[in-house]
């Protein structure tokens, strides 16, 4: 391991194994995520990308192997365990509540209560404070498309909903933000906004794991690219060291790293 503490991985996986009956999801996978970097995870369907991410975020428990966060070994049993330790995940199906407004979605499950007995005994939600903090968080991330935090999420575009989910992850993901196909259902303009968000997270020093099929976007924003193939890590490359064609060749087994 690098003796330079600035380059110690924030998140590490060592020799992760996960099987589902006779199907091998992960076959001894390693992964390192460093401070303030965007690590893309790519691979064909069935390569183990989703299983790897689920193990790192507590949605699946690996059969073998170790997960380390800031040098401490973790034993995540459920997603809440990972969230408690500062790992936030934005899944493709966006767990937002359409009827609630932007601020309420940002604080979903973590609502701020009013001070004193109103909050502690009667559990009254401090809507005003949540809305102000939501505005501050969105402004800090440079999300200019969500000026009004009182708008119900069901009135937002796909890109704006994605921005709400990413902002929520950024607000509470103190260590790591994981984005699962964040631009899959978006148009060009909205995809561009999400890529800017990813850069904004990195600029704040929050490392990002980006799972994506979109090679041009991966090569645009990723610092390093983890390639999964047949349940193993086939290679870790950079946009400087390899081309998109190289990446696809490694992904499909047509070439070695």
Structure explained in plain terms:
The structure is a single chain. This protein is α/β, with parallel strands linked by helices. It has a domain at 5-95 and 173-252: Rossmann fold (3-Layer(aba) Sandwich). The protein has nine helices and ten strands. The chain has helices at 49-56, 79-84, 102-106, 117-120, 127-140, 158-172, 188-203, 215-221, 244-252; strands spanning 11-20, 23-33, 38-42, 64-69, 72-74, 87-90, 176-180, 208-211, 224-229, 232-237. Strands 6-7-8-3-9-10 form a six-stranded mixed beta sheet, sandwiched between helices. Strands 2-1-4-5 form a four-stranded antiparallel beta sheet, with helices on one face. Helix 6 packs parallel to helix 7. Mean pLDDT is 90; it is low at 1-5.
Keywords:
alpha/beta; disordered N terminus; 10 strands; Rossmann fold; 257 residues; six-stranded mixed β-sheet; ATP binding; ABC_transporter-like_CS; 9 helices; AAA+_ATPase; Sugar ABC transporter ATP-binding protein
């Amino acid at each position: 391991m690098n003796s330079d503490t600035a380059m110690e991985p924030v998140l590490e996986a060592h020799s992760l194994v996960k099987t589902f009956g006779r199907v091998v999801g992960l076959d001894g996978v390693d992964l390192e995520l460093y401070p303030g970097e965007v690590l893309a995870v790519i691979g064909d369907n069935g390569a183990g990308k989703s299983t790897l991410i689920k193990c790192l975020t507590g949605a699946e428990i690996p059969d073998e192997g170790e997960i380390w966060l800031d040098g401490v070994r973790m034993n995540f049993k459920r997603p809440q365990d990972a969230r408690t330790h500062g790992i936030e995940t934005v899944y493709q199906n966006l767990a937002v509540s359409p009827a609630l407004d932007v601020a309420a979605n940002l604080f979903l499950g973590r609502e701020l209560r009013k001070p004193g007995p109103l909050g502690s005994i009667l559990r009254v939600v401090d809507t005003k404070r949540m809305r102000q903090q939501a505005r501050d968080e969105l402004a800090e991330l440079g999300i200019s498309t969500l000026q009004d935090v009182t708008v119900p999420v069901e009135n937002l575009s796909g890109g704006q909903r994605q921005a709400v989910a990413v902002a929520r992850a950024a607000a509470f993901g103190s260590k790591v933000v994981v984005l699962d196909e964040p631009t899959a259902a978006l148009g060009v303009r909205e995809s561009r906004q999400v890529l800017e968000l990813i850069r904004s997270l990195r600029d704040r020093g929050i490392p990002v794991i980006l799972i994506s099929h979109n090679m041009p976007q991966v090569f645009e924003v990723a610092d390093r690219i983890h390639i999964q193939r047949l349940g193993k890590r086939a290679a870790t490359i950079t946009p400087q060291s390899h081309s998109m064609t190289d990446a696809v060749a490694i992904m499909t087994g047509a070439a070695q790293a």
